Amino acid sequence: MIKEPKHLSQFQMALKRFKENRMAMICFYILFILYAGALFADFLAPYSYSNEERNYSYCPPTPLELFNEQGHLTWPFVYGRQLTFDEYHKRIYLVDKIQQFPFKFFVKGDEYKFLGILKSSYHLFGVESPGRLYLFGADSRGRDLYSRILHGGRISLSIGLIGVAISFSIGLLVGGIAGYFGGWIDDALMRICEIVIMIPGFYLLLALRAVVPDNFSSLQVYFAIIIILSFIGWAGLARIIRGMGLSLKTRDYVLAAKTLGVSNIKIIVTHILPHTLSYSIVAVMLSIPGYILGESALSLLGLGIQDPYASWGNMLSEAMSIARIKFAPWILLPGFFIFLTVVCFNMIGDALRDCLDPLYKGEERAG
Amino acid sequence: MLLKIEHLSVKVKNNEEIRPILKDVSLEIPAQSIVALVGGSGSGKTTVALSILRLLSPALEITQGKIIFQGKDILRYSTAQMRNLRGKDVGMVFQEPLYAFNPVYRIGFQIEEVLKCHTDLNQKERREKVFELFNKVGLTDPLRITQAFSHQLSGGMRQRAMIAQAVALHPSLIIADEPTSNLDVTIQAKIMELFRQLKEELKLSILLITHDVGMVTHLADEVVVMQEGSVVEKGKAQTILQNPQHAYTRQLIEALV
């Protein structure tokens, strides 16, 4: 019996092409680490997002020391810090070489619920109290920036995914319906889209945020922000899907489905929308950064996630004065994470566009 | 009488300058018979077919006439009634099955889709039904075909799968819109044989739209000849083929030789 040659499906071919793109794979791993970090933030971070120590306000990063005073290699530890002020009342943290806090794994600390289920108070690493471990430095209230970046990632990274899921569902559905039915339904839906697109996004964001009551809990604010961001994002996609729908509905298989008595909504969902998939996957990837930046912008202005809850945007709001940046440059770190995430999503989106294109012939393009 | 079209006229909406697409078309399809609708390109054959399913392009409108199917005027049907009629009572076979199957789904899924819409069979029963249909239309190796995408099948197999989809719910009428014009001659003969066999087995009628007079000779019980949106001649197939009355019918027959 002759063995049939192995055929790759379109999906397998796309996956293969994606894996061959090293830049995109690196970005994928970075994002994977960031998302994993956010998911397991409770465990991976030595402190909770609200664990504060006012005596360590703007404490610079405490490096892990590998050599003791005698210059011998030892188990890593951190020195204690002593807060003093210079003649201009500027804070200065002196390294207190008498206090040594060894770096430890599975340290008991703030209590949390692992993945929201298991109660635990063990953290992957840390130092025993009263020592403080500030890998990335501390913010104004002496909270660990590293812990807060991990916790903040939960909000900043999830908002992109949930926001995109909501706005793309709306966009696909509205676009599909407008394109498929045409006529006055199309006109009405497209005029609504145009109204949404017409208003400058950021001001619409601010205006909608103003509608949300002040007394919302932070969870409610979180969802309010997602809904606000999604409300702005769907219209552009709907217009493009509508255009595709207009052309797809003239295909024979749509007519064939009609002659078989398949209902309209089912035709849209099974015969029109799947054909827009290669476009929408790329569009999804390229629009996630918009949501992350949107949330950051709102939180930066103090309109989004409120202290003490961490998001990369509201952590950056501390970095709004030049004096503080000069004095404690590490408070800009959340901005670097925003940048990293946005770049990664854009890179992946770009790579996906190439590999989902069935006519893609590799790097050597004519032109 | 299974289907009766009376004085059907179709024209382009809001446009008096273009000539009507159909002018006063009347035809009848008796139960369990094959009626051939012949005519040149643009003579309105497909428009007649789509009128029966009420799937005309939104730019066209039926200005007068009746379409009586099993004693009821389907032009008065609601959309829900129409959807129930499509697929269940009237099936359609297209000229180019490559385009009539959605390229992103497997063939099996698309045939099951019809069963899903109109029956409440469960997954396993649907699968069995698909296999049974494939057997009926002469597709051996049903397992492979259910798993295949339309571009992976040959033209003949695709057309058989298309026919399986059309007869899935045992409709009493099948509209076949030039079902063999894209197939090679040997396969044409086999598909024609399949139609004859299905007609006997499932006791259905076929409205065969074609411009191939050879196919008419082999299959049709009755013939309706159309030219520029009007019926110019109709009657028993043999009578018309042997003794055509209208000049256009004669031209069509001569074109065959």
Explained architecture:
By secondary structure, chain A is an alpha+beta fold. Chain A folds into two domains: about 50-145, no CATH class; about 150-355, MetI-like fold. Chain A has 13 helices and four strands. The longest helix of chain A is centred in the middle third of the chain and has 37 residues, at about 145-180. Chain A is elongated. The model of chain A has no long low-confidence stretch (mean pLDDT about 85). Chain B has about 260 residues and is α/β, with parallel strands linked by helices. Chain B is globular, with a radius of gyration of 18 Å. In chain B, the strands form two sheets. Chain B has a six-stranded mixed sheet with strand order 6-7-8-3-9-10, sandwiched between helices. In chain B, strands 2-1-4-5 form a four-stranded antiparallel sheet, covered by helices on one side. The longest helix of chain B has 18 residues, at about 185-200. Chain B has a domain at about 95-170. Chains A and B meet through helix 8 and helix 9 of A and helix 2, strand 6 and helix 4 of B.
